[in-house]
Amino acid sequence: xxxxxxxxxxxxxxxxxxxxxxxxxxxxxxxxxxxxxxxxxxxxxxxxxxxxxxxxxxxxxxxxxxxxxxxxxxxxxxxxxxxxxxxxxxxxxxxxxxxxxxxxxxxxxxxxxxxxxxxxxxxxxxxxxxxxxxxxxxxxxxxxxxxxxxxxxxxxxxxxxxxxxxxxxxxxxxxxxxxxxxxxxxxxxxxxxxxxxxxxxxxxxxxxxxxxxxxxxxxxxxxxxxxxxxxxxxxxxxxxxxxxxxxxxxxxxxxxxxxxxxxxxxxxxxxxxxxxxxxxxxxxxxxxxxxxxxxxxxxxxxxxxxxxxxxxxxxxxxxxxxxxxxxxxxxxxxxxxxxxxxxxxxxxxxxxxxxxxxxxxxxxxxxxxxxxxxxxxxxxxxxxxxxxxxxxxxxxxx
Amino acid sequence: xxxxxxxxxxxxxxxxxxxxxxxxxxxxxxxxxxxxxxxxxxxxxxxxxxxxxxxxxxxxxxxxxxxxxxxxxxxxxxxxxxxxxxxxxxxxxxxxxxxxxxxxxxxxxxxxxxxxxxxxxxxxxxxxxxxxxxxxxxxxxxxxxxxxxxxxxxxxxxxxxxxxxxxxxxxxxxxxxxxxxxxxxxxxxxxxxxxxxxxxxxxxxxxxxxxxxxxxxxxxxxxxxxxxxxxxxxxxxxxxxxxxxxxxxxxxxxxxxxxxxxxxxxxxxxxxxxxxxxxxxxxxxxxxxxxxxxxxxxxxxxxxxxxxxxxxxxxxxxxxxxxxxxxxxxxxxxxxxxxxxxxxxxxxxxxxxx
Lengths: 398, 354
Fold this sequence. Notes:
Chain A: This is Beta-ketoacyl-[acyl-carrier-protein] synthase family protein. Helix content of chain A is about 35%, strand content about 20%. Chain A is built from 12 helices and 14 strands. In chain A, a hairpin with a 4-residue loop joins strand 13 (about 380-385) and strand 14. The radius of gyration of chain A is 19 Å and the shape is globular. Helices cover about 30% and strands about 20% of the residues of chain B. Chain B is built from 11 helices and 11 strands. In chain B, strands 1, 2, 3, 4, 5, 6, 7, 8, 9, 10 and 11 form an 11-stranded mixed beta sheet that branches. In chain B, helix 2 packs across helix 5. The relative contact order of chain B is 0.19. Chains A and B meet through helix 4, helix 5, strand 4, helix 6 and helix 7 of A and helix 3, helix 5, strand 4, helix 6 and helix 7 of B.
């Protein structure tokens, strides 16, 4: 196994909690964060379940101490909220004392405000300040500015694998020696655009999602943000930092099969996991737990299941999807699940795959359905997205 | 870890037509607020069904990628890395409009499916059946340079031997109308160039630029990319330390820079940054390109195309000169490209002859 990149901070906000501790408590209690949409009106309100954070934009803005008026979209507010926590945990009083970067990710960016105020832009200047808040990169700029970072700031957008790729890019920048420290993760707010998009694809479940279940009917969307602070092992040591976990492996591959569907045999997922094991210099036997992508769409779970069976063969480690807790938080999912993977290592727990009932017929795969206490050394986390983008990360115990 | 990488093939769809030897000598200076790319015939490159379904960004991207790979005689890159500021906004616009017009009813998924930022890179991977590394960066004016930096990481670390690198941004009617209403794009009836710009805003356009970049020099190599640096925000005076730091890292005395490619776009505030960098490099010949490419987030890729052309041909097409400063130079070895937008997303790229 290689040394890896040190994780010295993490922060999260999701529908199950505003802090790392609250998220941990929800996992321990098996309490999901799914509900009906309340933050904005939509025709889909009674038809879908979502992992919505029950805090208004005004509350979020107040909590992080912004002065009005500003043009922080919900995506940006959630991102700034979670990233600030990560910095506090990492004791980063001076963000610029080392070469520090921010690699963020988002898929909706400022779409939530564009869909709200767009119809007025051509007739009234009242909401024009949100025009420049639309592009994905604007959220990263505002988060960096809020944190006081002056350095390398960029954004990844590869649909639902975005945050995993942002984490991977950050780790590679540290390994290359270009950065000493980097804040990595992702943020996405619920919007009419995304819920209707997924609805039009007919992959939203009208019930609570059941990943890897024979009777799974689709996914539940969610919103949230999570960030990690990554530091080179040397930088972490020199500062006497408390290391939460090491990021030891990462792999990115493309399924090259279809714009939205995953291939039958999960080729992209297989390649991503294989590459992650290779970078970590581990074998599949070393993995103690897999935090699966597990969206609960018929297509994803079968394809991911096949890919896992190809990687692990007869030695399938414990695995679960934590999406029944948070909903699928799209570009934030890889970061939220990175936090859950690190919590699993720190606490020695395997989070349960809620709502699982009947095994799939096609595969001999049964997820962990009850919380399990067990010492873990290496956790693999999967994130796959539209466009065939597949990424896997491996976190190892500090 | 420092190791140059080589530009082995170029492809582009721009307002000046597709990438070709004569692109600069035949170029026309843009003077409209919004100029569409001069699109090629996609027949034979993309299936007729797909031509109808795909947005201009996807089509331009597929065409430019193919051109770059063909020029480099590269059938299968190890990785595809792209940058785009606004992604597939034509499809985003379409889905958003039907959301508004039909009050969340009767929506079809096609435009939603194609609206994700990574669609172009995904479609290229699909066409090539390229299962390698695939990432899309979306960060304003450094969207392309972020992808370029990732390309350097992939090649310098040995993770890849050949990378298909690209930048794409498309005109989408509604998105551009909003940018116009917000004052970013000049008013529809203006007729000004970068040089004659007097009204607020900038001339916008669209385009796709792709590069086949490899660890090894080949018969088709244009130039080598030595390094790239990114910075999120700077005040004009702070550009000095950004530049000095980059030159120091690369052991590059400012006197050794033959040309500096600047992103002058006719916006008075924006141009202050370029003037500052130009002033700090008195011996470098200043060149510009946005009068030909137009402004869009990934337009700085046009600047890289300029650098590659000059270094390979060892000549500067007259239309690229920013001023009358007559260069006595006959050889061009080191070129610096500087780009930013509204004080944000600063990048420096160092390109050298090979």
